[in-house]
Protein backbone atom coordinates (compact mmCIF):
# COMPACT_ATOMS: atom_id res chain seq x y z
CA UNK A 1 0.00 0.00 0.00
CA UNK A 2 2.85 2.42 0.81
CA UNK A 3 4.34 1.89 -2.65
CA UNK A 4 0.99 2.49 -4.35
CA UNK A 5 0.41 5.70 -2.41
CA UNK A 6 3.93 6.89 -3.25
CA UNK A 7 3.30 6.19 -6.91
CA UNK A 8 -0.01 8.05 -6.70
CA UNK A 9 1.80 11.00 -5.11
CA UNK A 10 4.22 11.03 -8.06
CA UNK A 11 1.33 11.19 -10.51
CA UNK A 12 -0.25 14.09 -8.61
CA UNK A 13 3.08 15.90 -8.08
CA UNK A 14 3.70 15.74 -11.81
CA UNK A 15 0.20 17.04 -12.56
CA UNK A 16 0.75 19.93 -10.14
CA UNK A 17 4.05 20.75 -11.87
CA UNK A 18 2.30 20.69 -15.24
CA UNK A 19 -0.36 23.16 -14.06
CA UNK A 20 2.30 25.29 -12.41
CA UNK A 21 4.31 25.30 -15.63
CA UNK A 22 1.29 26.52 -17.57
CA UNK A 23 0.69 29.20 -14.94
CA UNK A 24 4.24 30.54 -15.37
CA UNK A 25 3.37 31.29 -18.98
CA UNK A 26 0.89 33.84 -17.69
CA UNK A 27 2.66 35.02 -14.52
CA UNK A 28 6.24 35.05 -13.24
CA UNK A 29 7.43 31.84 -11.61
CA UNK A 30 7.89 33.34 -8.15
CA UNK A 31 4.31 34.62 -8.02
CA UNK A 32 2.89 31.34 -9.34
CA UNK A 33 4.78 29.26 -6.76
CA UNK A 34 3.90 31.57 -3.87
CA UNK A 35 0.24 31.53 -4.91
CA UNK A 36 0.13 27.73 -5.18
CA UNK A 37 1.84 27.29 -1.80
CA UNK A 38 -0.63 29.70 -0.18
CA UNK A 39 -3.60 27.85 -1.68
CA UNK A 40 -2.27 24.61 -0.22
CA UNK A 41 -1.88 26.19 3.21
CA UNK A 42 -5.47 27.46 3.21
CA UNK A 43 -6.73 24.03 2.16
CA UNK A 44 -4.72 22.32 4.90
CA UNK A 45 -6.07 24.68 7.55
CA UNK A 46 -9.61 23.89 6.39
CA UNK A 47 -9.00 20.12 6.62
CA UNK A 48 -7.06 20.17 9.88
CA UNK A 49 -10.06 19.78 12.25
CA UNK A 50 -10.90 16.44 10.59
CA UNK A 51 -7.52 15.10 9.49
CA UNK A 52 -5.10 16.58 12.00
CA UNK A 53 -3.28 14.42 14.52
CA UNK A 54 -1.28 14.72 17.75
CA UNK A 55 1.95 15.93 16.15
CA UNK A 56 4.89 16.29 18.50
CA UNK A 57 7.43 19.10 18.44
CA UNK A 58 9.80 16.72 16.67
CA UNK A 59 7.20 15.99 13.97
CA UNK A 60 6.67 19.71 13.36
CA UNK A 61 10.43 20.28 13.27
CA UNK A 62 10.97 17.52 10.69
CA UNK A 63 8.16 18.91 8.55
CA UNK A 64 9.42 22.49 8.83
CA UNK A 65 12.89 21.32 7.79
CA UNK A 66 11.31 19.53 4.82
CA UNK A 67 9.49 22.72 3.85
CA UNK A 68 12.71 24.73 4.04
CA UNK A 69 14.63 22.15 1.97
CA UNK A 70 11.91 21.92 -0.67
CA UNK A 71 11.56 25.68 -0.97
CA UNK A 72 15.31 26.18 -1.22
CA UNK A 73 15.40 23.48 -3.89
CA UNK A 74 12.66 25.26 -5.82
CA UNK A 75 14.40 28.64 -5.70
CA UNK A 76 17.70 27.07 -6.81
CA UNK A 77 15.92 25.11 -9.55
CA UNK A 78 14.39 28.23 -11.09
CA UNK A 79 17.75 29.99 -10.80
CA UNK A 80 19.42 27.04 -12.56
CA UNK A 81 16.80 27.12 -15.32
CA UNK A 82 17.43 30.83 -15.81
CA UNK A 83 21.22 30.43 -15.95
CA UNK A 84 21.63 27.07 -17.67
CA UNK A 85 20.30 24.73 -20.36
CA UNK A 86 16.86 23.44 -19.36
CA UNK A 87 17.38 20.06 -21.05
CA UNK A 88 20.46 19.56 -18.85
CA UNK A 89 19.21 21.18 -15.62
CA UNK A 90 15.97 19.16 -15.46
CA UNK A 91 17.45 15.62 -15.66
CA UNK A 92 20.39 16.42 -13.37
CA UNK A 93 18.04 17.87 -10.74
CA UNK A 94 15.54 15.00 -11.09
CA UNK A 95 18.26 12.36 -10.75
CA UNK A 96 19.63 13.94 -7.60
CA UNK A 97 16.15 14.34 -6.13
CA UNK A 98 15.48 10.63 -6.71
CA UNK A 99 18.86 9.47 -5.40
CA UNK A 100 18.82 11.31 -2.05
CA UNK A 101 15.90 9.36 -0.47
CA UNK A 102 17.48 6.10 -1.63
CA UNK A 103 20.82 6.95 -0.02
CA UNK A 104 19.16 8.16 3.19
CA UNK A 105 16.98 5.06 3.35
CA UNK A 106 19.96 2.74 2.93
CA UNK A 107 21.88 4.71 5.57
CA UNK A 108 18.96 4.28 7.98
CA UNK A 109 18.95 0.52 7.51
CA UNK A 110 16.74 -0.27 4.50
CA UNK A 111 17.53 -3.67 3.05
CA UNK A 112 16.48 -4.25 -0.54
CA UNK A 113 15.94 -7.46 -2.43
CA UNK A 114 17.50 -7.88 -5.87
CA UNK A 115 14.33 -6.99 -7.87
CA UNK A 116 13.74 -3.83 -5.83
CA UNK A 117 17.40 -2.77 -6.11
CA UNK A 118 17.34 -3.28 -9.88
CA UNK A 119 14.03 -1.42 -10.07
CA UNK A 120 15.42 1.56 -8.12
CA UNK A 121 18.47 1.75 -10.36
CA UNK A 122 16.20 1.57 -13.41
CA UNK A 123 13.96 4.28 -11.96
CA UNK A 124 16.94 6.62 -11.58
CA UNK A 125 17.77 6.06 -15.23
CA UNK A 126 14.12 6.58 -16.19
CA UNK A 127 13.96 9.94 -14.40
CA UNK A 128 16.96 11.20 -16.39
CA UNK A 129 15.63 9.91 -19.71
CA UNK A 130 12.12 11.28 -19.23
CA UNK A 131 13.49 14.70 -18.27
CA UNK A 132 15.84 14.88 -21.26
CA UNK A 133 13.40 16.70 -23.54
CA UNK A 134 16.16 17.57 -26.01
CA UNK A 135 17.48 14.01 -26.18
CA UNK A 136 20.59 12.44 -24.72
CA UNK A 137 22.78 14.65 -26.90
CA UNK A 138 21.79 17.61 -24.72
CA UNK A 139 23.44 15.97 -21.71
CA UNK A 140 26.74 16.06 -23.60
CA UNK A 141 26.69 19.85 -23.33
CA UNK A 142 26.94 19.76 -19.56
CA UNK A 143 29.97 21.39 -17.98
CA UNK A 144 31.14 20.56 -14.43
CA UNK A 145 31.07 24.25 -13.51
CA UNK A 146 27.38 24.40 -14.38
CA UNK A 147 26.33 21.45 -12.22
CA UNK A 148 26.35 23.23 -8.87
CA UNK A 149 22.86 24.76 -8.93
CA UNK A 150 21.06 21.74 -10.49
CA UNK A 151 22.70 19.36 -8.02
CA UNK A 152 21.90 21.64 -5.06
CA UNK A 153 18.29 21.96 -6.23
CA UNK A 154 18.03 18.19 -6.51
CA UNK A 155 19.44 17.75 -3.01
CA UNK A 156 16.79 20.17 -1.74
CA UNK A 157 13.98 18.21 -3.39
CA UNK A 158 15.43 14.89 -2.25
CA UNK A 159 15.81 16.12 1.33
CA UNK A 160 12.18 17.20 1.26
CA UNK A 161 11.17 13.58 0.65
CA UNK A 162 13.65 12.20 3.18
CA UNK A 163 12.86 14.69 5.97
CA UNK A 164 9.09 14.46 5.62
CA UNK A 165 9.39 10.68 5.91
CA UNK A 166 10.69 11.09 9.49
CA UNK A 167 7.28 12.27 10.75
CA UNK A 168 5.62 9.79 13.14
CA UNK A 169 2.78 7.63 11.90
CA UNK A 170 0.13 9.07 14.25
CA UNK A 171 0.74 12.76 13.47
CA UNK A 172 -1.94 12.97 10.79
CA UNK A 173 -1.74 15.99 8.49
CA UNK A 174 -0.70 18.40 11.25
CA UNK A 175 3.01 18.36 10.27
CA UNK A 176 2.11 19.58 6.78
CA UNK A 177 0.98 22.86 8.33
CA UNK A 178 4.53 23.44 9.59
CA UNK A 179 5.92 22.42 6.20
CA UNK A 180 3.66 24.76 4.28
CA UNK A 181 3.99 27.73 6.65
CA UNK A 182 7.77 27.45 6.37
CA UNK A 183 7.56 27.35 2.57
CA UNK A 184 5.24 30.38 2.35
CA UNK A 185 7.33 32.45 4.79
CA UNK A 186 10.56 31.67 2.94
CA UNK A 187 9.00 32.57 -0.42
CA UNK A 188 7.74 35.86 1.00
CA UNK A 189 11.22 36.61 2.38
CA UNK A 190 12.70 35.95 -1.07
CA UNK A 191 10.12 38.31 -2.60
CA UNK A 192 11.00 41.02 -0.07
CA UNK A 193 14.73 40.54 -0.66
CA UNK A 194 14.23 40.88 -4.41
CA UNK A 195 11.76 43.72 -3.98
CA UNK A 196 9.31 41.90 -6.24
CA UNK A 197 5.98 41.31 -4.46
CA UNK A 198 3.92 38.42 -5.90
CA UNK A 199 1.46 39.52 -8.57
CA UNK A 200 -0.96 37.13 -10.26
CA UNK A 201 -2.96 38.14 -13.33
CA UNK A 202 -6.51 36.82 -13.48
CA UNK A 203 -5.68 34.53 -16.38
CA UNK A 204 -3.24 32.60 -14.19
CA UNK A 205 -5.46 32.24 -11.11
CA UNK A 206 -7.33 29.01 -12.12
CA UNK A 207 -4.06 27.23 -12.93
CA UNK A 208 -2.40 28.44 -9.73
CA UNK A 209 -5.41 27.31 -7.73
CA UNK A 210 -5.38 23.87 -9.36
CA UNK A 211 -1.62 23.57 -8.93
CA UNK A 212 -1.90 24.39 -5.23
CA UNK A 213 -4.68 21.86 -4.64
CA UNK A 214 -2.82 19.12 -6.52
CA UNK A 215 0.47 19.87 -4.77
CA UNK A 216 -1.01 19.60 -1.30
CA UNK A 217 -2.89 16.43 -2.32
CA UNK A 218 0.43 14.94 -3.44
CA UNK A 219 2.01 15.92 -0.13
CA UNK A 220 -0.80 14.20 1.74
CA UNK A 221 -0.43 11.02 -0.32
CA UNK A 222 3.32 10.98 0.22
CA UNK A 223 3.05 11.66 3.95
CA UNK A 224 0.52 8.85 4.40
CA UNK A 225 2.78 6.55 2.35
CA UNK A 226 5.69 7.24 4.69
CA UNK A 227 3.51 6.59 7.74
CA UNK A 228 2.70 3.06 6.55
CA UNK A 229 5.11 0.13 6.82
CA UNK A 230 7.62 0.46 4.01
CA UNK A 231 11.14 1.51 3.10
CA UNK A 232 12.19 5.09 2.40
CA UNK A 233 14.41 3.92 -0.45
CA UNK A 234 11.35 2.49 -2.19
CA UNK A 235 8.77 5.14 -1.28
CA UNK A 236 11.12 8.02 -2.03
CA UNK A 237 12.19 6.81 -5.45
CA UNK A 238 8.60 6.06 -6.49
CA UNK A 239 7.52 9.56 -5.48
CA UNK A 240 10.46 10.93 -7.45
CA UNK A 241 9.01 9.59 -10.69
CA UNK A 242 6.86 12.74 -10.89
CA UNK A 243 8.46 13.95 -14.18
CA UNK A 244 6.73 11.04 -15.94
CA UNK A 245 3.21 12.40 -15.46
CA UNK A 246 4.36 15.92 -16.35
CA UNK A 247 5.79 14.69 -19.65
CA UNK A 248 2.72 12.57 -20.43
CA UNK A 249 0.36 15.49 -19.75
CA UNK A 250 2.46 17.76 -21.98
CA UNK A 251 2.21 15.18 -24.74
CA UNK A 252 -1.55 14.68 -24.36
CA UNK A 253 -2.68 18.26 -23.64
CA UNK A 254 -0.08 20.35 -25.46
CA UNK A 255 0.67 17.82 -28.20
CA UNK A 256 4.37 17.99 -27.48
CA UNK A 257 6.41 15.32 -29.21
CA UNK A 258 8.39 12.84 -27.16
CA UNK A 259 11.98 12.32 -28.25
CA UNK A 260 13.27 8.70 -28.33
CA UNK A 261 15.07 9.14 -25.01
CA UNK A 262 11.81 10.12 -23.31
CA UNK A 263 9.98 7.14 -24.80
CA UNK A 264 12.73 4.88 -23.49
CA UNK A 265 12.42 6.60 -20.13
CA UNK A 266 8.68 5.94 -19.95
CA UNK A 267 9.26 2.27 -20.69
CA UNK A 268 12.02 2.11 -18.08
CA UNK A 269 9.74 3.77 -15.51
CA UNK A 270 7.00 1.20 -16.06
CA UNK A 271 9.44 -1.68 -15.70
CA UNK A 272 10.99 -0.05 -12.61
CA UNK A 273 7.59 0.26 -10.92
CA UNK A 274 6.87 -3.41 -11.58
CA UNK A 275 10.22 -4.51 -10.15
CA UNK A 276 9.95 -2.27 -7.09
CA UNK A 277 6.41 -3.24 -6.18
CA UNK A 278 6.71 -7.01 -6.76
What would the keywords be for this entry?
278 residues; mainly alpha; 11 helices; 0% strand; globular
Your description of this structure?
With 278 residues, the protein is mainly α. Helix content is 76%, strand content 0%. It starts with a helix and ends with a helix. Residues 2-131, 149-277 form the EamA domain. It holds the Pfam family EamA.
Layout of strands and helices, then pairs:
Layout: H1 2-23, H2 29-51, H3 57-83, H4 86-107, H5 114-131, H6 148-164, H7 174-194, H8 205-227, H9 232-239, H10 242-253, H11 260-277
Helix pairs in contact: 1-8, 1-9, 1-10, 2-7, 2-8, 3-4, 3-6, 3-7, 4-5, 4-6, 4-9, 5-9, 5-11
Domain EamA: 2-131, 149-277
GO cellular component, one term: membrane
Keywords: Membrane, Transmembrane, Transmembrane helix
CA radius of gyration? 18 Å
| Major sheet description | none
Helix content: over 70%
Total beta-strand segments? 0
- Percent range for β-strand residues: under 5%
The tally of structural domains comes to: 1
Low-confidence stretches: none
Number of helices: 11
Mean pLDDT: 83
Q: Label the structural class.
A: mainly alpha
